[in-house]
Structure formats: structure tokens, C-alpha cells
Write a structure and sequence with these properties.
With 283 residues, the protein is α/β, with parallel strands linked by helices. The protein is 41% helix and 13% strand. It has eleven helices and ten strands. The protein has helices spanning 24-37, 51-61, 81-95, 112-124, 138-146, 166-175, 196-205, 209-219, 231-238, 247-254, 269-276; strands at residues 3-5, 11-13, 17-18, 41-43, 69-74, 102-105, 131-134, 154-158, 178-182, 223-224. The strands form two sheets. An eight-stranded parallel β-sheet has the order 3-4-5-6-7-8-9-10, with helices on one face. It has a two-stranded antiparallel sheet with strand order 1-2. Strand 1 and strand 2 (11-13) form a beta hairpin. The longest helix has 15 residues, at 81-95. It is globular and about 55 Å long. The relative contact order is 0.14.
Length: 283
């Protein structure tokens, strides 16, 4: 597995396995199958309600802890310095881990300043190997950096052929922040899996559209966390290191940019209002 080096020297696989929208009752099986397929990076979140299942799959795998890279995220309702530490401990209990590889502020709302202070302390205590954010646009990202001690190692944002985030990635690169893609397939929107441009590129390499998209992102230096509950798709998604897209093919995918989110705009007040209504039970 190819890896990237984060701004604190920590090595992170450039391709991992995501469990967003995977029901808790399916997650343990899916993660176990992903680990069997060769994935060593697993991405979950408190709000996904499947951390316990991820933890069970990790424990049952027999894979040495040092060979795994585990990410989880802090939700808005747990924002704040005291609440964030408590939320971290709940996540660790559910995951069954002593240390975490990457902890992210999930949304740029609520008291994320207080959350970041708590995460900086946990990092100093070596409970977390790297800390970062998710869904932060450049204005929020630079604001956090300018008023705190530690520069986020990662910013996990919606990134796919229809919303490519090139300017945002360039901005992050200058700051030493690694871009990570959630929703690399745009959940199939805009006919992604049958798009003629992507299909033609795939046919030229004997690869699927999904593999073309992942390869395009990886060649840009974007960390990716595709999700699937089907073992054959898991194996397909990880099989993207034996071919390269040409410069012309990279540009053909670049031409698909729409400049718009396919889901929700985190700069939209209504989106912020909606996300802030989602709370956790903290069970």
C-alpha cells in the first residue's frame, strides 16, 4: 500500500476503507472483509454509530495494532474542551483501542476551538498520533491555524470528479495540510459510474470507472476512503496501484468539474443549521 507522510512525520495509507452509512449490524462483517482484502486504514466517526463494530472487527482480525491506521471523528454535539475529551474516551472505549491514529473535528461548527485545545492536549499525551479536521473550507482552516498551536495534519472534504477542490488542495499544500477525500464516487450522482469519459478511460486500462476515479485522486496526492459492503468491490477498489493515468487522461477527468457540492454546502447557513440539530445519544 502506498502511503503519504503527514506534517508531523506520521505515515498514513493513501487508500483506506470508509464506513459512512454502513449500518452497525453490517459494519463488523464489512470491516473484517476489508481487512482480509488488504486494507489497513479504517475511517469511522462517532456519529456513524458503528465504532463498536469497527473495534470488534479489528480485535478479531489478529492484525498487529502497529499495522493499522484508525480514524474517528468528534461530532458537533460533543464540541468544547471538556466535552471533546469525554467524547474521545467514549470512542476509544467503543473501538477498544489505547491510542488513535487520527482524530478529526467532524464539522466546522460549535466550539471547535475548545475541541481543538482538547485534541492538542491528547496529542501531547500521545493518545493520538495525528489530529485534523473535516469539512473545513480554507477560511475556517486558516482561522484555526492562526489561533492555535498545532496545524491540522488532514482536512477530510468532499472531493470527486464533479467537485475537485483543486484550489483548496493547493491552499492546504502550502499550509502542510493533507487533503483527504470523502465521497470519492459522489455516491454515483451525475451518472458517475456510467459516465462516458470515465468509462472510456477505464476501458483503455482494463479497469472500472471506480478504479479510474480512485487512481485519478491518488495521482493528485489525495488520500481516499472508498466505501463498499460488497467484497468484490472492496477488492476492486484496492486494486489501483498497477496502472497510471496519462496527463491527457488526468485532464479529461479534470474537465468534469462542476464547482459545486453534490451533497451540501458547508458555507450555507441552512446546512449549518441542519447539521447542528444532529445529536448523539452518548450511550
Amino acid at each position: 500500500m502506498d502511503c503519504v507522510t503527514l506534517n508531523n512525520g506520521v505515515s498514513m495509507p493513501i487508500l483506506g476503507f470508509g464506513v459512512y452509512q454502513v449500518p452497525p449490524e453490517e459494519t463488523e462483517r464489512a470491516v473484517s472483509q476489508a481487512l482480509e482484502a488488504g486494507y489497513r486504514s479504517i475511517d469511522t466517526a462517532a456519529v456513524y454509530n458503528n465504532e463498536e463494530a469497527v473495534g470488534r472487527a479489528i480485535a478479531a482480525s489478529g492484525i498487529p495494532r502497529d499495522d493499522l491506521f484508525v480514524t474517528t471523528k468528534l461530532w458537533i454535539s460533543d464540541a468544547g474542551e471538556g466535552s471533546a475529551r469525554q467524547a474521545f474516551e467514549r470512542s476509544m472505549d467503543k473501538l477498544g483501542l489505547e491510542t488513535l491514529d487520527l482524530y478529526l473535528v467532524h464539522q466546522p461548527f460549535g466550539d471547535y476551538y475548545g475541541s481543538w485545545r482538547a485534541m492538542e492536549k491528547l496529542y501531547a499525551e500521545r493518545r493520538i498520533r495525528a489530529i485534523g479536521v473535516s469539512n473545513f473550507f480554507p477560511d475556517r482552516l486558516i482561522d484555526l491555524i492562526n489561533h492555535n498551536e498545532i496545524v491540522p495534519a488532514v482536512d477530510q472534504v468532499e472531493t470527486h470528479p464533479f467537485f475537485q477542490r483543486v484550489a483548496d488542495q493547493n491552499f492546504m499544500d502550502k499550509l502542510g495540510v493533507r487533503i483527504e477525500s470523502w465521497g470519492p464516487f459522489a455516491e454515483g450522482r451525475n451518472g458517475l459510474f456510467t459516465h462516458p469519459t470515465l468509462t472510456a478511460i477505464g476501458e483503455a486500462h482494463g479497469k472500472s470507472v471506480a478504479q479510474v476515479v480512485l487512481r485519478w485522486l491518488i495521482q493528485r496526492g489525495v488520500v481516499v476512503i472508498p466505501k463498499s459492503v460488497r467484497p468484490e468491490r472492496m477488492r476492486e477498489n484496492i486494486d489501483v496501484f498497477d496502472f497510471n493515468l496519462s496527463d491527457a487522461e488526468m485532464m479529461d477527468v479534470t474537465a468534469l468539474e462542476t464547482g459545486k457540492s453534490q451533497f451540501l454546502d458547508h458555507r450555507d447557513p441552512e446546512a449549518a443549521k441542519f447539521l447542528s440539530t444532529l445529536t448523539l445519544t452518548n450511550e
